[in-house]
Design goal:
With 80 residues, the chain is of the alpha+beta class. The chain has a domain of 45 residues. Helix content is 29%, strand content 12%. A two-stranded antiparallel ribbon has the order 1-2. Strand 1 and strand 2 form a beta hairpin. The chain is globular. The two termini are 25 Å apart.
């Protein structure tokens, strides 16, 4: 499934989807495997339970949520 978020999705002033976002709700209910490539930190925080970082010819798994990934990599969540 390839989803491109429509521009007319409701956003808060912060740029995050509003509470009750139907796309986020549908993805949270999905019971299969979801490969999510996104710059939307809110979606990543709500949906991710494992991170695979791909770079420099290798893939590194992080067996935790998005915050776990940030803590293990030392990345600043505001810079991503």
């Amino acid at each position: 499934m390839d989803l491109w978020a429509p521009k007319e999705r409701a956003k808060q002033p912060s740029g995050h989807p509003v509470q009750g976002d139907p796309l986020l709700a549908a993805l949270k209910k999905f019971t299969g495997t979801l490969v999510l490539v996104s710059h939307d930190r809110h979606f990543l925080r709500c949906l991710v339970n494992r991170v695979f970082e791909i770079g420099q010819g290798k893939m590194t798994p992080y067996e935790g949520d998005y915050e776990y990934y940030l803590s293990k990599t030392g990345r600043d969540h505001r810079a991503i």
